[in-house]
């Protein structure tokens, strides 16, 4: 699997944000086509669900992992973003021909026998890993990674905090000592919830701050995965905080889109929509204390130009509609687990 690794639309059909820079064609040398049954083993969300299933059988969760972001390019340039995308290989460095040549979309990978084809416009920029360490030293960084206090982004430098506990209050999300409150009242991303006391449902303190040089935020979400009473893996997406005057409905979702300020003629965007920061305390409305579960946060930015839009303007290209020119960068935190 390459491309974004959080979720796949076939595995998460009710998640409108699951189809982000998805590569699901075949293996890297195009000798084997993708089969639907392969997908369960290739994405983080389904991996976390499979961990709960295996824990029921083995008594231990082998997929209790944190989330990190990374890239896979061969141009000696670490973590290029959409404004500075130099391609995946030296042969796909910026030029008027790396997307379209002689009026046809450039094919990067093909196996005609398998009807497998990958176009060069489908290459994507690199992700990043963020680490919440106690100090900027090698030891502290590795300690933080070992305890899974990390999160992944698709290249943007969003800051995200996630804490889980039993006693968070709404006003905690508006405190400037939010991290202190989080560590005092709960546990950070990558942890197990402390033993439940009383009959409360777990609450989660989540806060996101936009990339200082990047786009405003559309929304903050909590993704929940759990095993139902029949041992089947389930999932649900909840909107926790949304920008503007939009409202979250009784079903926990905001159906109204944030809007779009992208000007493809430049290309650029403006931060006249969205919010520079979002946060709240969310309590699981569907909590069943008898069922294993995990929770992680996802932060979505407002739309911004994709690298293909910059190429289109720079090289004055005429591109077909199938070439995406906009993207919505995002961040994913490591989960917090609940075990009865």
What descriptive keywords fit this protein?
single chain, 340 residues, alpha+beta, seven-stranded antiparallel β-sheet, four-stranded antiparallel β-sheet
Give a quick account of the main beta sheet: strands, pairing sense, barrel closure. Answer: 7 strands, antiparallel
Shape: globular
Low-confidence stretches: none
Q: What proportion strand?
A: 25-35%
β-strand number:
17
The number of domains: 1
Question: How far from one another are the termini?
Answer: 33 Å
**Measured on Cα atoms, how large is the radius of gyration?**
21 Å
Structural class: alpha+beta
Spell the H/E element sequence.
HEEEEEHEEHEEEEEEEHEEE
Report the mean per-residue pLDDT as an integer.
95
How would the blueprint of this fold be written?
Layout: H1 44-58, E1 100-101, E2 104-105, E3 107-111, E4 116-119, E5 128-131, H2 138-146, E6 150-153, E7 159-165, H3 178-185, E8 186-188, E9 203-209, E10 217-227, E11 233-242, E12 277-283, E13 293-301, E14 304-305, H4 307-314, E15 326-327, E16 330-333, E17 336-338
Antiparallel strand pairs: 1-2, 3-4, 5-6, 6-16, 7-8, 7-9, 9-12, 10-11, 10-13, 13-16, 13-17, 14-15
Overview of the molecule:
This protein has one domain (36-338). The strands form 5 sheets. Strands 5, 6, 10, 11, 13, 16 and 17 form a 7-stranded antiparallel sheet that branches. It contains 4 helices and 17 strands. With 340 residues, it is α+β, with helices and mostly antiparallel strands. A hairpin with a 4-residue loop joins β3 and β4. It has helices at 44-58, 138-146, 178-185, 307-314, and strands at residues 100-101, 104-105, 107-111, 116-119, 128-131, 150-153, 159-165, 186-188, 203-209, 217-227, 233-242, 277-283, 293-301, 304-305, 326-327, 330-333, 336-338. The model has no long low-confidence stretch (mean pLDDT 95). Pfam families: DUF3604. InterPro entries: DUF3604. This is DUF3604 domain-containing protein.
């Amino acid at each position: 699997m390459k491309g974004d690794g959080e979720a796949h639309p076939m595995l998460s059909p009710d998640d409108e944000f699951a189809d982000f820079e998805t590569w699901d064609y075949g293996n890297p040398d195009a000798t084997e086509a993708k089969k639907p049954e392969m997908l369960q083993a290739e994405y983080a969300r389904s991996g976390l669900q499979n961990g709960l299933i295996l824990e029921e059988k083995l008594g231990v969760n082998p997929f209790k992992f944190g989330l990190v972001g990374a890239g896979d390019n061969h141009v000696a340039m670490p973590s290029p973003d959409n404004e500075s995308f130099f391609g995946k290989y030296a042969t796909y460095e910026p030029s008027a021909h790396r997307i379209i040549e002689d009026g046809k979309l450039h094919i990067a990978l093909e196996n005609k026998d398998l009807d497998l084809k990958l176009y060069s416009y489908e290459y994507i920029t690199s992700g990043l890993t963020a680490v919440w360490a106690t100090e900027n030293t090698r030891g502290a960084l590795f300690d933080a990674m070992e305890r899974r206090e990390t999160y992944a982004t698709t290249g943007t430098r969003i800051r995200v905090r996630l804490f889980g506990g039993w006693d968070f209050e709404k006003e905690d999300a508006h405190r400037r000592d939010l991290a202190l409150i989080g560590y005092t009242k709960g546990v950070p991303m990558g942890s197990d919830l402390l033993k439940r006391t009383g009959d409360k449902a777990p609450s989660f303190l989540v806060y996101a701050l936009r990339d200082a040089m990047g786009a405003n935020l559309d929304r903050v979400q909590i993704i929940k995965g759990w095993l139902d009473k029949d041992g089947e893996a389930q999932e649900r997406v909840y909107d926790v905080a949304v920008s503007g005057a939009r409202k979250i409905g009784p079903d926990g979702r905001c159906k109204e889109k944030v809007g779009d300020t992208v000007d493809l003629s430049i290309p650029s965007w403006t931060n006249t929509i969205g919010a520079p920061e979002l946060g709240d305390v969310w309590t699981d409305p569907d909590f069943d204390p008898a069922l294993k579960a995990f929770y992680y946060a996802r932060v979505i930015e407002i739309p911004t130009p994709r690298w293909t839009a910059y190429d289109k303007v720079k090289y004055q290209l005429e591109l077909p509609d199938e070439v995406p020119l906009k993207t919505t960068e995002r961040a994913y935190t490591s989960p917090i687990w609940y075990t009865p």
